[in-house]
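FW: tagging you since you asked about this chain on Friday. Here's the raw sequence from the shared folder, copied in full. Didn't touch anything.
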Amino acid sequence: MTCSIAALDGIDDREAGLASGLSNTAFQIGAAIGTAIVSTVAVSRTENVLAADGAGNRLVALTEGFQSGFLACIVLAGVSLLVVLLLLARSESRASEDELERPPVSRVQVAEQ
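HL: got it, structure written out here
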């Protein structure tokens, strides 16, 4: 919910539906790609452990696969956090540049309008 609120912050009312649709679509695509990556890592690790151990315990191999999948989740979350921080820093620097470029509005100018 908070991501939707943040995504729609500052959007005109007439464009809110489009922004909401884009936000939800990006979330769904990201979730699908993330699930595919994590499951691929888990299955690959499980198969590698079974192939290396031969007649080894399947539960141990499955546990190894899940551990690798969870590690992939941590890595994806870390990369996502870095991307978010970089994008926020860039948007804040653009906002401060825009404020520096605008001439200050005096109270006299506001009263005249």
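FW: Residues 46 and 63 are 8 Å apart (CA to CA).
HL: agreed, and The chain has one domain: 2-112.
FW: great, closing this out.
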